[in-house]
Amino acid sequence: MLFEVDDTVFTKEVAYDYASIDSIPVIEASDLSYGSFFNDFMLLNLPCIIKGITRNWQCLKCWITENNALNFEYFEEHYGMDMVQVYNCQERFYNTQKSYSCCFRDYLNNLKDKPNVLINTSYEYVKNWHLQLNHPEERFYEVPIYFASDWLNEYYVNCLDDDYRFVYMGPNGTWTPFHVDVFSSYSWSANIFGKKRWIIFPPGSEEILRNSFGDLPYDVEAKESVSFRSSQASTKSKKCIEVIQNPGEAIFIPSGWYHQVHNVTYAISVNHNWVNGCNISMMYDSLLRALSEVKEEIKDCKGVDDFEEHCQLMLNAHFGMNLEVFYKFLMYIATKRMEMLQGLCPKTLFHGNEIGSNHILFDLESLKNVLEKFITCNEIKVLDFFSTVTPRPHDLFDEVSLILEIHSIFTDLGSK
């Protein structure tokens, strides 16, 4: 399926306005085009819930029985040997939960020992399960067209044999603590089975939750967090938004929106973290903030040899990416889009959907903008990697700028 934007997107002035938001729209997939989602939600960094997303997914037939029960026999037969990370939602470990790794079959057997797995008090939650990566031959779901512009998984799947595509599975009472998504990415989460309750804060409104040390809470529903929030909130814009996500619905969480998620019933969901031309600058800004945090943490070592290189090692551990990895990511997407624009490679992406010509141009414009900021970063002048990589950041910026300029000239000539 083709996903495309219209040519007015290049002249749009984008201003993020969260002050008046007090609810999240719920829209039928049949009433929502890709262009509308792009303009009204992605570009404006606003959340929504889309109904009817999973209607034709294969997993609905395989994972759920005709009696609307979980098909544990199918799970064990097909995925029983997968290693999964299981989180105990009753045991805190810093700002996450204690976890252990086990064979998925063992997790299922533990559930079977419970008197009623759908009304459960085990509080054990399988998270970040790379099920699609582990079983590339299976197409148990389809990436909804709205979420097709996904640079992050395009790069990780094709280049690193890794991904940010996950399955989450756990009984009622399991939950994910208060957080913002990795890399300040977007996320989408589609419920295959069960219901979730989301507590969501527009960007900036999480600041009222910081304690005297500047730390954000582990649980926004803990007594101390609720009391503090009530004492600090003074305007409507400071309030959080709560929504219930039902089976078959996908929720879109934009960049920088802190959230906490609770399983109301036994729930299984497919989740992606993703980045594209709409939020790549937010990702870069987040990377620079993380670098500043690293430098502040080890500022006493600033005079030692290879200080900047050491900062990059720590940044990779702290943020999950450093400047080298980020540039390789930009370089891959930029190269692919330039090749697509010149007809040198297919426009079909890793999920089977095809990117439109205007969308390719939008991606290249976004890459040009972030590269323009990237080449002013002091670190690229001193880190060894950037003295040897080909093309260097300045050259890649020039190359993207030139191909956009040439395309614009030919477009103008063709319209005369």
UniProtKB/TrEMBL annotation:
<dbReference type="Pfam" id="PF13621">
    <property type="entry name" value="Cupin_8"/>
</dbReference>
<comment type="similarity">
    <text>Belongs to the JMJD6 family.</text>
</comment>
<dbReference type="GO" id="GO:0005634">
    <property type="term" value="C:nucleus"/>
</dbReference>
<dbReference type="GO" id="GO:0005737">
    <property type="term" value="C:cytoplasm"/>
</dbReference>
<dbReference type="GO" id="GO:0043565">
    <property type="term" value="F:sequence-specific DNA binding"/>
</dbReference>
<dbReference type="InterPro" id="IPR003347">
    <property type="entry name" value="JmjC_dom"/>
</dbReference>
<dbReference type="InterPro" id="IPR041667">
    <property type="entry name" value="Cupin_8"/>
</dbReference>
<feature type="domain" description="JmjC">
    <location>
        <begin position="132"/>
        <end position="291"/>
    </location>
</feature>
<dbReference type="InterPro" id="IPR050910">
    <property type="entry name" value="JMJD6_ArgDemeth/LysHydrox"/>
</dbReference>
<dbReference type="GO" id="GO:0045905">
    <property type="term" value="P:positive regulation of translational termination"/>
</dbReference>
<protein>
    <recommendedName>
        <fullName>Jumonji domain-containing protein 4</fullName>
    </recommendedName>
</protein>
<dbReference type="GO" id="GO:0016706">
    <property type="term" value="F:2-oxoglutarate-dependent dioxygenase activity"/>
</dbReference>
